[in-house]
């Protein structure tokens, strides 16, 4: 395993003439409050190296290799890898995503383990899929898993690329990959902890006040312990405790799922619930007028019907013709036009040239009929 800056530089030099590289990133978001990039596996079909991203502070020697001017990188789930690499100041570009390719080729099971088993008879050890990759040292079985996770990616990509070329959908796969790369860094919406609890908005008054206070307390404990909130207390325990409208610590201690929460944190939650009351939900954002909602639904239906016919005629997956996110964005256009199509993220030049007129016609015909 590569654990030093000098060895990392040597790795980059060794891969300098490569044309295609397999790449994968492992993080520890399942075990830490703030998920980190823990390992980076990179290599070709001949050799895969595991980089200890926790041991090397400066990963900048990888920048040129991973960027747009570097060799083609084969990944499975580009969004996660892009996001993790960005936390270390690295840009991921020039990518072929085998997950997107498999989906566009109509595979029902697009997980890497399923694809490797179906195509190469390779079975990945499922025991390691939820391993704590931030723990050190990594044992040999873990290192073997990390290597196996990448070793077959170049050959898998070669097969999928050839099938995509024969189906004439390489451009659509590339467009969706670029869309995923760009969206990966979109800021996540800021949500108060209590809003992430299922059934929260069914509670009122004292119960809702208790839920907010308990969720806030759990969040503080999780951050202090550097673990995900669910490892402190599950959502169902918070909801059950809040539903009982607790007034004393002994009431909370009867809820089994709260046993890992310190007494001090629970007392603070009780005080906060009584002091602050339920959260101010504010005025609900008014929904669009009924005529607008109905028009959008009608547009979506028209585009869905057109997409299905076109996909059947071409014998391709529905997403190849029109990704779901494009369909939704198109249905919300104020004024369907060629200029407006150019602003639809992920639609791409090939789809606009091939389907632009048909898309506009479907939208305008529906508007006229409405």
Mean pLDDT across all amino acids: 95
Strand order of the largest sheet: 3-2-1-4-5
Please state the overall shape, judged from the principal axes of the Cα atoms: flat
CATH class of the largest domain: Alpha Beta
The CATH architecture designation of the largest domain is 2-Layer Sandwich
Largest sheet: 5 strands, mixed
Descriptive notes:
The chain has 370 residues and is of the alpha/beta class. It folds into three domains: 5-183, Ribonuclease H-like superfamily/Ribonuclease H (Nucleotidyltransferase, domain 5, 2-Layer Sandwich); 193-276, HRDC domain (DNA polymerase, domain 1, Orthogonal Bundle), CATH 1.10.150.80; 290-369, HRDC domain (DNA polymerase, domain 1, Orthogonal Bundle), CATH 1.10.150.80. Helices cover 52% and strands 7% of the residues. It has 17 helices and five strands. The chain has a five-stranded mixed β-sheet with strand order 3-2-1-4-5. The longest helix is centred in the last third of the chain and has 25 residues, at 290-314. The relative contact order is 0.09. The model has no long low-confidence stretch (mean pLDDT 95).
């Amino acid at each position: 395993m590569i654990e030093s800056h000098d060895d990392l530089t040597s790795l980059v030099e060794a891969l300098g003439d490569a044309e295609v590289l397999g790449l994968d990133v492992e993080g520890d978001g399942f075990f830490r409050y703030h998920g980190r990039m823990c390992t980076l596996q990179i290599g070709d079909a001949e050799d895969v190296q595991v980089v200890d991203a926790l041991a090397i502070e400066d990963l900048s020697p990888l920048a040129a290799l991973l960027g747009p001017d570097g060799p083609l990188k084969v990944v499975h789930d580009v969004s996660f890898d892009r996001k993790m690499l960005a936390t270390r100041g690295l840009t991921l570009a020039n990518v072929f995503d085998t997950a997107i390719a498999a989906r566009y080729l109509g595979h029902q099971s697009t997980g890497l383990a399923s694809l490797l088993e179906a195509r190469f008879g390779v079975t990945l050890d499922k025991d390691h899929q939820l391993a704590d990759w931030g723990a050190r040292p990594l044992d040999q079985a873990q290192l073997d898993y990390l290597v196996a996770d990448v070793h077959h990616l170049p050959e898998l990509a070669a097969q999928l690329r050839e099938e995509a070329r024969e189906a004439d959908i390489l451009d659509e796969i590339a467009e969706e990959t670029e869309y995923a790369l760009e969206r990966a860094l979109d800021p996540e919406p800021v949500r108060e902890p209590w809003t992430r609890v299922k059934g929260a908005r069914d509670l009122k008054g004292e119960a809702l006040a208790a839920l907010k206070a308990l969720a806030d307390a759990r969040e503080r404990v999780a951050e202090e312990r550097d673990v995900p909130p669910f490892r402190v207390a599950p959502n169902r325990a918070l909801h059950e405790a809040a539903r009982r409208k607790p007034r004393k610590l002994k009431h909370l201690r009867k809820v089994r799922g709260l046993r890992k929460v310190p007494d001090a944190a629970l007392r603070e939650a009780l005080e906060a619930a009584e002091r602050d009351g339920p959260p101010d939900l504010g005025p609900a954002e008014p929904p669009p007028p009924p005529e607008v909602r109905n028009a959008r639904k009608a547009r979506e239906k028209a585009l869905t019907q057109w997409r299905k016919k076109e996909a059947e005629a071409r014998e391709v997956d529905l997403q190849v013709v029109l990704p779901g996110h494009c369909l939704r964005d198109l249905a919300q256009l104020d004024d369907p036009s060629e200029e407006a199509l150019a602003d639809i993220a992920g639609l791409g030049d090939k789809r606009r040239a091939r389907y632009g007129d048909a898309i506009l016609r479907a939208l305008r015909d529906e508007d006229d009929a409405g």
